[in-house]
Write a structure and sequence with these properties.
About 25% of the residues lie in helices and about 30% in strands. The chain has about 525 residues and is of the alpha/beta class. The chain contains twelve helices and 28 strands. This is FAD-binding protein. InterPro entries: 4Fe4S_Fe-S-bd, FAD/NAD-bd_sf, FAD/NAD-binding_dom, Metab_Enz_Cyan_OpOx_G3PDH.
Amino acid sequence: MKRYDLIVVGAGPAGLSAAIEAARCGMRVAVFDENAKPGGQLFKQIHKFFGSKEHQAKIRGYKIGETLLAEAAEAGVEVFLNATVAGIYLDKELLVQRGEAMEHFKADTIIIATGAAENMVTFEGWTLPGVIGAGAAQTMMNLYGIKPGQKVLMLGSGNVGLVVSFQLMQAGCEVVALVDAAPRVGGYGVHAAKIARCGVPFYLAHTITKAEGSDCVSGVEIAQVDDDFAPIPGTEKHFDVDTICLAVGLSPMSQLLKMAGCNMVDDPRRGGQVPQVDENGETSIPGLFAAGDVSGIEEASSAMIKGRMSGLAAAAYLGFLNEQDKDNSLADLEIALDSLHQGMFAPGSKGKTFAKTDEGIAVSQSLLKKGYLDDADIERFIHRPDQTIKNSGIHPVIECTQNIPCNPCQDACTRGCIKVGKTITALPRIDATNSCTGCGMCIASCSGQAIFLVDEDYAPGYASITLPYEFLPRPQKGELGTALSRSGQPLGHAEIIDVRSAKAFDQTTLVTIKVPVEQAMTARFYKPETNAAGQ
């Protein structure tokens, strides 16, 4: 029987973070993961993270995964892949299946970081080939380079549904609609907005009634629901699709913790059956910890911080870290975690509705119900009292209207034109007393693709708009296409007058279009005439 100071079950963001911290304290650490590749969800996540520098904001998920793997190797962590932990027994003994063999391992401390599994919903035809989870779609696209389908309908408007819908379009799929039984968009408004301006309609207070097809999905029927979420007869709508993608929540994979005898609670706010844990992730069994989604569903940024906290607590439990150093390190991590737990999307705010932002501005109902800001919203948010807006020359326009934890735009602007302040959930504000150079770093750094550079004085009768673009092939200077509104409606012809791509932009291309000046505050996306961007 092989022995370790610490065994971590799960090589995702929480597990790897925990293993790294423990190994750096001098512990002998092993990580087991049932998958062929480490990194968990990180390598499926090609979008840029939110938060601050300490949360690795504006860095794409797969790059964070690469960094964690490198740090784990440098720290001496042993990572075992294709290794399924089949059981956990008394005195912290694990039974692990590797290939055809069943092997026994023993540790003085254990951290369970097994993550979560996708939920499913049932409807007529839900077992047909072509009905898949959003996570499965991400795996196909971002790990194996396979298009899940040609025409896709997404069920679920939380962050997973919104992010995967955009990635489906990046892969060349057509997303015909985004559907949710809830009456409001569940995820970040900036994620919804970048989908809406591509022309994808939102059907909120709707659900799937049946998947059509005999051998595979050939269509889908949705219907509006009443206040009890029951379909309303006569409201059915049909879409021709070959794929139905489900993003209807996650459930913690807590089976090992139950098997170990940990005290469990049924907590819907944390995702279901989760262990009782203290502030550092220790369960009711001394020396047995839980980290990441297995102890409560959150974003990967929170999972990494909680993993680090559990790794340090495990090191202190065995005496590899003195209490003072542990307390100092945990205090810094608690501050970083607390900053993510603020604003409208904090764990304690699940299920709540907000009438106003922290700044006292009425929340956009158009954004919540349609996925995009309307003209009244723009007037209310862009011309608010705490901003000084320039109406001549090039200047940034920020369409981030919810209190979400994110501030890379502030760090990106070396001129001080954009300010968020110490509270990272505050709305970014423009200080036009500082002159914008048009460098575009704010656009590239924005994880929500919610910043645009506008110049109403580009040419007589014309304005220029620089916008983020993450589709292939990239447009070319001189190309003619169509300018789209925030709702994805065509506004007229647009000419590409500049295309910028740089290493510092991290694969976000800055595309500048020329439009009539009256469209300066309405045009927010560009569609090539050939429809080559997969929209």
